[in-house]
């Protein structure tokens, strides 16, 4: 058995979707300053870094991430597919069609677009151009794969800041059945294409819609 980390580390340099408040780390107590222990205050938006969108992100009565059971956060038969795109690009239904049988057989689909290559070398393009997972692609997943419970992607969001209205529509389509989850800003570079399980470990925070998460893949 091999464990694979599919999440990015969080830090002050983490790229953020435009309009998201920056991460703030305050060294509240410090051994170096004479305190008996270290203590940090961490301030960040809940859609920071690798995070999981739950239905309440776009639906007033949708489930919040803390409403999910542990069993719902363990995905079996997970597959990763490659659909290369450039910053500002768009994933269409026709990009997914060749993978129809793969998608129908898995509970979580991971899409590697290659945008992650820009995350460090050109974070502005990664965050401000991003990628659109089009409404047509979202509808394809919902119509052709009733057993699919989640989508993960190596882009800052399924919505590009360049086409926000379409991105919002994609979110609504995917999250419409009150059980689906979207994992954004994943670390998929060089990772295996198949997993026995992927385990999501989000922060279980009361009241909030979604949360940063650690995603762990389990392969043979």
Description:
The protein is an alpha/beta fold and 220 residues long. The chain has one domain: Glucose Oxidase, domain 1, CATH 3.50.30. The chain has 6 helices and 12 strands. It has helices spanning 93-96, 100-105, 117-121, 123-128, 135-144, 164-174; strands at residues 2-5, 24-29, 39-43, 51-53, 74-82, 89-91, 108-112, 131-133, 150-153, 181-184, 194-202, 211-219. A 7-stranded mixed β-barrel has the order 4-10-9-7-5-11-12. Strands 2-3 form a two-stranded antiparallel ribbon. The chain is globular and about 60 Å long.
How is the topology of this model organized?
Layout: E1 2-5, E2 24-29, E3 39-43, E4 51-53, E5 74-82, E6 89-91, H1 93-96, H2 100-105, E7 108-112, H3 117-121, H4 123-128, E8 131-133, H5 135-144, E9 150-153, H6 164-174, E10 181-184, E11 194-202, E12 211-219
Parallel strand pairs: 5-7, 6-8, 7-9, 9-10
Antiparallel strand pairs: 1-12, 2-3, 4-10, 4-12, 5-11, 11-12
List keywords for this structure.
220 residues; alpha/beta; Glucose Oxidase, domain 1; seven-stranded mixed barrel; 19% helix; globular
């Amino acid at each position: 058995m091999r464990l694979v980390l599919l999440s990015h580390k969080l830090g002050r340099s983490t790229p953020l979707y435009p309009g998201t408040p920056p991460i703030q780390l305050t060294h509240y107590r410090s051994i170096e300053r004479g305190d008996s222990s270290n203590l940090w205050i961490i301030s960040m938006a809940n859609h920071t870094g690798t995070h999981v969108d739950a239905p309440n992100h776009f639906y007033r009565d949708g489930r919040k991430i803390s409403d999910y059971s542990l069993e719902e956060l363990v995905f079996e038969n997970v597959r990763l597919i490659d659909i290369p795109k450039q910053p500002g690009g768009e994933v269409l239904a026709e990009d997914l069609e060749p993978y129809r049988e793969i998608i129908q057989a898995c509970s979580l689909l991971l899409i590697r677009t290659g945008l992650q290559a820009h995350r460090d070398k050109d974070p502005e393009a990664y965050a401000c151009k991003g990628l659109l997972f089009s409404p047509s692609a979202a509808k394809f997943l919902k119509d052709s794969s009733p057993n699919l419970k989640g989508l993960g992607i190596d882009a800052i969001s399924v919505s590009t800041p360049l086409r926000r209205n379409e991105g919002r529509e994609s979110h609504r389509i995917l999250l419409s059945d009150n059980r689906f989850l979207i994992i954004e800003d994943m670390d998929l570079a060089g990772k295996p294409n198949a997993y026995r399980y992927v385990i999501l470990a989000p922060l279980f925070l009361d009241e909030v819609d979604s949360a940063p998460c650690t995603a762990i893949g389990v392969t043979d």
